[in-house]
Queue: 2 jobs
Job 1
Amino acid sequence: MRRFHAIFVCVAVTIFLTGCANTNSQPLVVMTYNIHHAEGADGVLDIDRIAGVIAGANADIIALNEVDNNFSDRSDNQNQPKLLAEALNMHYVYGATITSGPQETPNQYGNAILSKYPIIRSDNHKLANADNKEPRCALAATIRIDSQTYTFIATHLNHQQAKLRNAQANSIIDILEGIDTPVILAGDFNCIPGTNAAAIMTETLDSSFEKAGIGDGGTVGRNSKIDYIFMSRDIAGKLISSTVIRDETTKIASDHLPMITLLER
């Protein structure tokens, strides 16, 4: 992998450790980013560009959507979560939502979590689905950050049917009922604030951007607000700010813009 500059069917999950924690007194930076398998708006496949965006934001924990692992020629059969973790010196976990091909070298597509902090355990939860629709999952990781343990969840909901998105959101609510740590939930929910799945989530969690957003919050298209970072109310008091990173690089690196939220540690 090239060096970059910081200016700039669900399956079992395996935890990979390629980095080490960097404890400091700075705010905790959480990111959600649909990377579109690292193919940018310019049609160029560039996983290093994605790594540069993450590094430039100094993100501590990151939810990634549309991540390929040996998926196809479209991403040069890259193991994208591994490449990103190695470039950023982070821990990572991957949760496939689609798996095909041989068992020894499966072709996979799904969600990933990157973390500067050790991932203690992870689970890839299957969400509600309908016939002939793309499977969706919620990848949950238990992460120890300083003296606090968090559950960090990355997900990506259906883009076609509001009814199905609602069912998937309710699947996540069911998952949350079994968690006894503070929760941060992030990803592409494919709906605007106050509607269907987003409204269901805010019955239980707080939306970081709705509470402390800076700017318009648009992450795709003509400023559509469909990517979110939610948090459980026991840590909502730690919220500092939330914003979308819009610059010359992020505007072309993917078809979505990354969102970051800052929390007190």
Job 2
Amino acid sequence: MRPVQVMKLDVIVFPVRSFLVGLAVITLLAGGCGKTHPVPENAEVEVGFLDQVAAGRSGHGSRIELVRDVADDAMLQTLTVDDTWIKTLILDAGVISDRGVQSIALLPKLGHLRLRESPISDVGLAEIAGCDALQILNLPQSDATSAGVAHLAELPDLKNLRIGGPRLDAETASAVASIKSLRNVHLINVPITDEGLRQIASLPKLQSIYLDGSVVTDEGWDWLFQAHPKLHVHVNQKHLDRDHANHGDDGEQSEHSEHSTMDGND
């Protein structure tokens, strides 16, 4: 019997629906039957990290984005200072440590960084502060303190900051207020006080402020709307009724700021 030749296909992404339909046909032809499950029309297999890197290095990409696939520090160690094509790095699954951030800090053109589920500490924030091109930073599960946030004042053009973590305290407001380039601020479960609100509101380019888990009083909010009536304000993920600026309820600040001012992916 002649050996069967298998043709190798160079395919990075293919529709999951097509694959499952073919599998279902094979099952029926074999006499099997079973319960079927609906598959989204546009469902696709996520392109792997190394495949995205290869595409970018060949001139076919400017971002690395893993929403479902697990990322780790070892993956990031494959990046170098020559990867000037990387403008956006989004890693939503897996855990990146301060060690991984050392590799990220090598990227000279990085403008947008999002690391979910990653306990980046003050050491990591000090590394990120060296990313001069960074404009959007999203670290919702950091392990940083207010001292680490203060490092970010070294970034010349940071516009959007979204950060949370169990070690962030009321002093975080002072650190945020030192980042004069900020336009949009979202602090997640940080106990910002009335005084802290005043400090953040003093930012010269501020357009929106989102506070989850703050301890700002009614008097504090009254002051804000009198002193800064054009600010877009959300509290605990909801648009604050007393914000009379002409804004709709955009949901999370990540959606408002990142979607409207940059690339719309958060």
